[in-house]
Structures are given as structure tokens and as C-alpha cells.
Amino acid sequence: MKSRFRSLYVRTCNFVGDTTGYLRPCYFTNWAQYRDGRAKFVPEDYVPRLCTHILYAFAQFNSSFILSPTDPADLPNESDPKGLYQRVVELKNYDYALKVLISVGGWTLSQTSLFEDMMSSKENRTAFITSSIIFMRKYGFDGIDIDYEYPKNKENFNLLLRNLLKHLK
How buried is 167 (Cβ within 10 angstroms: 0-12 exposed, 13-18 middle, 19+ buried)? Predict the structure, then answer.
């Protein structure tokens, strides 16, 4: 299955895309909006051309391997008609070379068995990859960052990354 996604950044630093220049991936954490004072950070605080890629932390997935947001503020809501996903993706309007990727996992999700369960069979990996592509298209992300910390089964992790890359090309 061909896709419009041309960027894949994974925790292992495998990268597909323009490698002729420096890469400056930056995490945008959805909980930074809740900080007080100068530590608070929202998408509109981003300085154009500071980063080549923004990795939006985090999305999660369930036992059916379907991706979903981790915070209600990620999506449009009563207090924010756009939601953080759209506000971050719209940064590309001011920084045309910027790529915005969804980061899946993080330390908290890595502490569960969900990653190992998802990677344990071809069917599970395919369900996750299909869900990831649907999620990226729905919310306007250019790619995906797999933030699985300390994989137990490296062979299955590599299978996941190879299959994901194949479907994103």
C-alpha cells in the first residue's frame, strides 16, 4: 500500500527523508500546556525553523492496536475549537519545510505489555500499522515516531519497523 507519508523517525534513529542537512527533531509534549509561568508551552510559542521535525508526544493504542489521543485537549473541544493536533500541524503554514510526526508510546505505554502484544504476530502488527496510517491521515501528521523504550523482543521490533517503513513509502 503506497502512502503520502515520506518521513519515518523511530527511536532507533532510522530515518527516511532528506539526510543531506542536519536534522533537528523536537518533541512537543501535550502536557506542556498545563505548566505554570514561563515553563508553559503551546504551539504558538514555536519559533519557525527551530526544528526540522516536531514529534508530537504522545498517542496511545489499545489492546486492539487502534491509535487514539492521550489527552482530550489534543482534539477540538469547548475551550479550544482546533485542538492541539491541528494547532501543531498548522505550524507548517509558517515553516514550510517542517514535518510533524505523531509519537506513539513513551515511558508510560512502554511499561505495559501492549507493545509486545502488538508486535507478537503479523496480524497484530498489520492492525497497528493500518490504524497508524488512518490516524496520520485523519489528523494531518507527516509520519510516526515509535517511542518504545526498552523493547524486550528486538526481532519483533525490527519486523514492526520494517513493515511500517514498507507501508509508509
Answer: middle
